[in-house]
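re: that chain from earlier
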Amino acid sequence: MRAPLARTGTGFTLIELLVVMLIAGLALAVVPPMLTAGLPGLQVRTAALQLASGLRTARGQSIAQGREAVLMLDLGRNTYSVGSRVVALAPGLELVLDTARSEASGVAEGGIRFFPDGSSSGGRITVRGGARGYRLDVDWLTGKVTLNESA
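^ sequence. v structure.
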């Protein structure tokens, strides 16, 4: 006759479960504030990248269609448009436009014009939000759009 096998306890003790629950609770309390702390900087960067994409789209349309294209900015409403597409920026962001006087169509409106040969009227658009900001430079000769972080 064989001797009965000793039972080994499989599973977790109550203390182990409580320790895991405590660690998970602390993680849930600490992680969300850390994630939302970087959100304003992310919004500024996203807006600057979208604006750079809009500028490049206007340039591409101008070259492809053989006619001028303009990216218009409405600084009062924090919007910009390329053709019939209007994009609104997130609340709390600020736009600053530095362009040729001929491209300003009011105190709070203006644009950057692209020509069929790829050149542009040139200019600079700054997107700010909180302590972060990005500067978009448009070269007048080549129409090249560059994005740089600004102080």
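The chain has a mean pLDDT of 88.
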